[in-house]
């Protein structure tokens, strides 16, 4: 009806399990799996299911998760719930993993940086174990589609949880599905390029491969003081000078593009296309993983950039043009209706149907039209223009300096 067609000779697979929608991190916790429900509504409303193959995700196995994570941590995650947490904390081998208390910590943290207190970034909630193994299973199934040559592009919007460490949850991330995917890819592909457009630094992925010259990590992120309190924007790493572990063969295979608040479409495009283009030319990846965190959009509850949905999508287009096997993942994104808009648009771009999505959302075909209606919710448009709500601290000469510096780095 909307002219959605299946691209010839180009297969896209979409991996999802609706069970993740029922999860709640806590009442005012910014991470809302509900954004995935809205994304699904738009994808189906526009008829994009006809342009790709959809797969129901199954949970990852414990052994698969252990290829990166600590066995104690994996066992803890597979058993934890609000009911079992206190008891599990008493087990000696888990108790060894309680992080040291820092001055000013507002909540008591349990083993592996997990906590049942409501102020925690990584709370223990009902159904959590199921949720973690499902989003991971979806990423691994998507990866398998690529490594077996069955898909050209594979998508999992519930994945992309880039902060999780080997034996520690961090920043709303528990299992690092990205690292697990790249480990799988390395069995098939000589080199994998990881690109991260989430507003936060992709620290967990960078750290996992800091000694690995076959993986290049490239993150674009807000970096610097958060506000006038002197706190740094989370996680506080990812400086321009951070290029992988010095003195190892992994040195020069991590790139970071730290960005000030309020960056606009034109500036972001300049940075993204210069640096990504040069990284692709220099590294010559055999496959690409693109983390599409939507908290880099203007109007995000946690983000501080001013970029619009079309520019966010241009990043996907730019990477897609290489024609390399491409894994597209979600990540952050805290203004749910805009996350859904961006990821629906990017699903369409992946299937070559980007040109056919009307700016007018087919409200009669989406179950919750009110989520996209009214002035405050974007007036029923797929591409509403975001109000610039962050002062633009990016200056051209500074952006040029960064591009030049990274260009030098890529000459190694
Ligand atoms: C919340 O309202 O900067 C957690 C977290 C819970 C519920 C009520 C408790 C209120 C904002 C954030 C007190 C909350 C204090 N609730 C949280 C240093 C911090 C310690 C924890 O997009 N406090 C930590 C993590 C970041 C910090 C960002 C991005 C993930 C991704 C990929 C992760 N953590 C300060 C904050 C709330 C909360 C409200 C919050 N946490 C905002 N930013 C953070 O890159 C998915
Ligand atoms: Ca990033
Ligand atoms: Zn983020």
The chain-level structural class is: alpha/beta
**CATH superfamily assignment?**
Histone deacetylase domain
CATH class: Alpha Beta
Cα(first) to Cα(last) distance is 51 Å
Estimate the mean pLDDT confidence: 96
Radius of gyration computed on alpha carbons: 20 Å
| Cα shape | globular
Which tags fit this structure?
Arginase, Chain A, 32% helix, binds zinc ion, 412 residues, binds ligand ZL4, binds calcium ion, alpha/beta
What does this structure look like?
- The chain is α/β, with parallel strands linked by helices and 412 residues long.
- It has a single domain, classed as Arginase, Chain A (3-Layer(aba) Sandwich).
- The protein is 32% helix and 10% strand.
- An eight-stranded parallel sheet has the order 2-1-3-8-7-4-5-6, sandwiched between helices.
- α1 links the parallel β1 and β2 (53-56).
- Calcium ion (CA) is lined by residues 196-198, 200-202, 219-221.
Summarize this structure briefly.
The chain is of the alpha/beta class.
Secondary-structure map:
Blueprint: E1 12-16, H1 34-45, E2 53-56, H2 62-65, H3 71-79, H4 85-90, H5 92-95, H6 128-147, E3 153-156, H7 177-185, E4 192-196, H8 203-208, E5 215-222, E6 254-259, H9 265-283, E7 287-291, H10 309-320, E8 326-329, H11 336-350, H12 396-409
Parallel strand pairs: 1-2, 1-3, 3-8, 4-5, 4-7, 5-6, 7-8
Helix pairs in contact: 1-11, 6-7, 9-10, 9-12, 10-11
């Amino acid at each position: 009806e909307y002219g959605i067609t299946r691209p010839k000779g180009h297969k896209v697979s979409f991996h999802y399990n609706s069970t993740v929608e029922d999860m709640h991190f806590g009442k005012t916790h910014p991470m809302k799996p509900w954004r995935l429900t809205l994304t699904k509504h738009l994808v189906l409303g526009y008829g994009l299911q006809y342009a790709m193959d959809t797969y129901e995700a199954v949970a990852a196995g414990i052994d698969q998760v252990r290829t990166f994570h600590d066995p104690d941590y994996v066992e803890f995650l597979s058993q934890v719930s609000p009911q079992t947490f206190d008891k599990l904390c008493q087990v000696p081998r888990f108790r060894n993993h309680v992080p040291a208390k820092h001055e000013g910590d507002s909540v008591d943290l349990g083993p592996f940086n997990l906590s049942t207190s409501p102020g925690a970034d990584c709370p223990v909630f009902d159904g959590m174990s199921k949720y973690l193994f499902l989003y991971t299973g979806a990423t691994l199934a998507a990866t398998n589609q690529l490594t077996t040559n069955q898909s050209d592009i594979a998508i999992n919007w519930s994945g992309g949880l880039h902060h999780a460490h080997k034996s520690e949850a961090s920043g709303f991330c528990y299992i690092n599905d990205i690292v697990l995917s790249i480990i799988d890819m390395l069995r098939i592909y000589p080199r994998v390029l990881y690109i991260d457009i989430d507003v936060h630094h992709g620290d967990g992925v960078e750290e996992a491969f800091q000694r690995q010259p076959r993986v290049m990590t490239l993150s674009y992120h807000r970096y610097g003081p958060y506000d006038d309190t002197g706190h740094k924007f989370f996680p506080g790493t990812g400086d321009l000078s951070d290029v992988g572990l010095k003195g190892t063969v992994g040195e020069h295979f991590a790139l970071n593009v730290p960005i000030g608040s309020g960056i606009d479409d034109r500036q972001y495009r300049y940075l993204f296309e210069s640096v990504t283009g040069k990284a692709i030319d220099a590294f010559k990846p055999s496959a690409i993983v693109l983390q599409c965190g939507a908290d880099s959009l203007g109007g995000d509850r946690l983000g501080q950039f001013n970029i619009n949905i079309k520019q966010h999508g241009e990043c996907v287009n730019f990477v897609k043009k290489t024609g390399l096997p491409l894994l597209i993942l979600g990540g952050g994104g805290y203004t749910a209706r805009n996350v859904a808009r961006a990821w629906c648009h990017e699903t369409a771009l992946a299937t070559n149907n980007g040109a056919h999505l009307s700016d007018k959302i087919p409200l009669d075909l989406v179950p919750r039209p009110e989520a996209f209606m009214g002035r405050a919710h974007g007036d029923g448009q797929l591409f509403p223009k975001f109000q610039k709500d962050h002062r633009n601290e990016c200056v051209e000469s500074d952006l040029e300096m960064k591009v030049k510096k990274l260009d030098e780095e890529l000459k190694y």
